[in-house]
Here is the input.
Amino acid sequence: MDDIAALKASLSGWDRLGDISLLLVLLGVLLVSMTQFEWLIPWSGLAKFPKWQGPLGQIGALLLIVGLAGEIVAARSSRNINDQITAEIANRAGAAIERSKALEKDAAQLRLQLAKLKWRVITPEQQATLVEALKNAPRGPVTVLHGLDDEPWSFALQIRDALKVAGFDPALEQSPAALNLPGTWILVRDPQHPPRHAVPLQAAFREIHIDLDGQQNPQHIPNADSVVVLIGSRRP
Here is the structure.
């Protein structure tokens, strides 16, 4: 039997004592009333037994005292046990929260390990860092291009979603160009005069350890103000 079960069993015992004490109080009040109030004596039938009135009154008073004492003790004990149960539940809740945090941390580490072994992943922590890094950055057109395989598409989708949270409105497109460029790239029409949001984007991704290698590629850039983030296959 655990601590809470034992406390509940004890609380049940004190509650029963409280119920019994309440019955004693009621019985004591009844006996005292029947022997002390003259108008009740004929109704109670004690008029025929005058010698019983004194002892019954004393018994009633004793029952009343014992019942009240029992009520006080039971109420105080029940309150103390309830406080102990509340404290134990709070302690267990705190321990459960700590275990949950530990499991969440383990899950995050597992996700990172899985990402290193297999698919690239942007964790919630990385997304938060990216959003913070781009908080004051200028906004502009962004297109996220990805290769044909599932892994580049999955990574590109995560990047698109992270940029949306950061306040951009990126497009997501599939492109054969990604087949020839493994890794992650940032493409602009003119590297000497890049769009004003290109460099902040590159710096923000560097904050989450994603290097966007810069490259000039007018073929896939719709206009001089646009930036293309190209997601190729994962580098060995």
Observations:
- The CA atoms of residues 29 and 219 lie 101 Å apart.
- The helical segments are 3-36, 41-44, 50-117, 124-133, 150-165, 198-207.
- DSSP finds six helices and five strands in the chain.
- The chain has a mean pLDDT of 78.
